Amino acid sequence: TEFLEGPLSPPMSASKKQKTSAAPAGVTVATARCSSNIAVIKYWGKRDEKLILPINSSLSVTMDPDQMGTTTTAACSEAWKGDRLWLNGKEEDSSATRIQNCLTAIRAMAGGKAPKGGLRIVSNNNFPTAAGLASSASGYACLVLALGELFGIPRDQLSAISRQGSGSACRSVYGGFVKWEMGVEKDGSDSKAHQVAKADHWPDLHALILVVSDEKKKVSSSGGMKISVETSELLAHRAKAVVPPRVHAMEAAVKKRDFEGFAKITMQESNSFHATCLDTYPPIFYLNDTSKAIINTVHELNKEAGETVAAYTFDAGPNAVIYTLTKHLTHVTRSLSLAFPPAKKGDWKSHITDDALRGDVVAKGKMEGEDRDFAGKVKYIMHSIVGKD
Fold first, then answer.
1. For labelling, which of 72, 148, 211, 239 has a CA lying 20 to 30 Å from the CA of 246?
2. What is the pLDDT of residue 24?
């Protein structure tokens, strides 16, 4: 495809602003790479729809970009008119409100330093889009980071801008463990994210992503939370009385690397969030029967072990994220694989996508005891460590 008016050539090295010989003279290119983040203290509900200001603070774990990441290349040239955007090879409407919010804010912040001309932006996800795995978070964060690099804006000024694209995107600006402060100012100037701990603070923490469905969800996160704010009394109570002490407790658990505390709060938070979805009128059903079976399986695993070896969380979709520690990783993966085996008996290669982890699981012995009632209900299992900046 031609560079000038079609999707850009393969991305340059991450976070580098440069001119490229593959492009016409006067074209400046920057590429950024971002990860999805999975909230352990959930964001659900806005107090200001336009500025995307939340009704409570939240906290998340950034995933590994090799497993759940977005790569975005942005280019600017005075020879181009208007802005164009491609997502996963398909051109999208660059005039969409949230995209324009980000572009306008970036250009305003850059002022006279902003490159002149139109933008060409190409973004690709390596994991399912709009399926409840926070693809919008990594997408908008990556868009803003690439533009920030192109326009010469420091990372620490980009969190609040990415929030204007997708609320949770402000958390994907950073790696490790990230807290989004809800803020109190009406203009949203204090509603931004900061890093609670870097990825290497807790290298033993792992995430297993059980993909139940990679299809676009029927009720978007944005639409769902708007209805919840309007109709759920439980949501208001949750934001005011339940979440604040949990945020403090979760921060303490992360800093102490206390998996028992981390796991309990993570599961309680997931349950609380989905309870507010059920309390919404009409109710929103993000979980399905397989999701509920995964919840039961995790509790059974913990009971059999006599300790907490795994913790589930679900965002706005049926897909599960299971947190565990290095010492339990093989056992937990094996147990979940047998409980939710591949559609084709013995097809472990496509079911567990991490080659090394799959090797450890299979090396434990013959894979016996598959629950064929749930065969194919989990399409595949990904593995992620905590992602770095």
1. 211
2. 60
Sign of CA dihedral 106, 87, 132, 97: positive
DSSP 32: E
The residue-averaged pLDDT of 358-365 equals: 95
Alpha-helix residue ranges (DSSP H) falling in 213-307: 221-231, 233-237, 243-256, 259-279, 289-305
Query: Which residue is listed with tokens 């909230």?
Result: 39
- Give CA 89 to chain center in angstroms: 20
Length of the chain: 389
Cα 310 from Cα 308, distance rounded (Å)? 6
**Nearest of 1, 141, 2, 171 to residue 72 by alpha carbon:** 141
What is the rounded CA–CA span in Å between residue 64 and residue 353? 14
Contact 58, 171 (CB under 8 A): yes
Take residue 223 and report the two structure tokens written for it: 């639409």
Report the 10 Å Cβ neighbour count for 346: 10
CA–CA gap between residue 150 and residue 377 (Å, rounded): 43
pTM of the prediction? 0.89
